[in-house]
Amino acid sequence: MSGRHPFTLLALAAALPALAWTLPAPWGPAGTFCSALVLCVLTPGASPGLAVARRALLTAAPFWLFLFLLHDRATALAIALRLSTMIASFVWLVAILPPARLVEALVAAGYSAHFAFLFAATLSAVPALRARAQRIVDAQRCRGLATRGGPLTRLRALRALALPLVLSALHEVDERALALETRGLSAGARRTPLAPPPDSTAERVVRWGLVAGCGAGIVARVLWRA
Amino acid sequence: MSIRLLALIPVAVAINLALSAAVDAVNLPLFLDTTGTILGTALAGPVVGVTTGVLTSLTNSFRNPTYLPFVAVQVLVALYAWFAARAGLFRNLKVAVPAGLGLGILAAAASTPISYKIFGCSTSGGVTLMTLLGRKLGMSDIMACAFSAFVSDFGDKAVTFGLVATVLHALPKRTAARFPLALRSIGAA
Predict the structure, then answer these.
(1) Residue A121: which domain range?
(2) B61 — contact with chain A (CB < 8 Å)?
(3) Rounded to an integer, what is the distance from CA B54 to the centroid of its chain?
(4) Domain tally, chain A
(5) What residues in B contact A66, CB-CB < 8 Å?
(6) In a domain, A116, yes or no
(7) What is the pLDDT of residues A79-112, one digit of tens each?
(8) Which are the contacts of B43, defined by CB distance < 8 A and separation ≥ 6?
(9) Which of A5, A38, A37, A49 is nearest to A197 (CA)?
(10) A139 in contact with B at a CB cutoff of 8 Å?
(11) Domain identity same for A88 and A133
(12) Tell me, what's the ipTM?
């Protein structure tokens, strides 16, 4: 499955939750949840399938608890199965689809290089800024910043932690802009992907089939309710 | 879109997602996960803000997919911040904090149907507890859900607006002048 085109994987990960919300509960969402779990278990590569399935189940578990606290059994089961389908599908997608491969597919499909840059730069910027936030927290604590006490003390501490983080991030914008201009991103020229993922006719048919299946599910649901 | 504004978007998304470390350190019941969206809008307008909001939801959903349906709230936050920036509502804390309270009400109103329809009001332990409390107080299911959304968003958005106003005033004038809306947001243009 990991060799499939990124758009096929995206279509599958989107179709399962869409079907979970359109098919009648509990059997429809139960079927989509089982399908998503099977996909998780069958995940190849560095992250073993059982670990992916466990991550999906652990992410979904609190919702089951909260839902059974809030609703009657039938409603809680229906919502929990639908949510669990969504969670398992996305956890599977993240495990099986490296962001760089998706970016290659987007560029190959003719999407703007700006679009691909935004996606890739965001994924690399988030962990870097998170690490810096933790360093600022540690540094301010070393300088004796009180992070406990009344709400006003905590708000003042929050300002002392957040301000250097946000200002330092904003000062980086100029450096990033300069680097992008140096690489010719402003020219608007079309980029050629180094390794575009192969896209077969069969996969395109499968993707359109998934879209048609979701559409049919919605129509059937509307007619069934009427 | 200019290259500087393009470079601002990933930074604004990272601000949205990195501030949780600061919030965890002071142990306050806040998210601050729209700070980058509001700041991006106040500096550069709605296109940067909306893109930041959508990318934040997408990136967050890789960690926890339940964030994805709330993308509409991020878009609403960006549009509200745009009106606030054009009206110069970041000129001082006395104006910014009430404007943030207004956004809290709007954000709670926008997130309630999503939370109710998709999650059955179970988005987190705190929200579940607040919904249960609302029911104990005699509210209907949807009103209890709205009550929990209101409690989560009201203070959070006020603090976020205050923080963004502080950042905009702390920016050197030369840096602020490089962004199209920054000086107008703080009432300096």
Answers:
(1) 111-185
(2) yes
(3) 12
(4) 2
(5) 122, 124-125, 128
(6) yes
(7) 999 999 999 999 898 888 888 888 888 888 888 7
(8) B8, B168, B176, B179, B180, B181, B182, B185
(9) A5
(10) no
(11) no
(12) 0.89
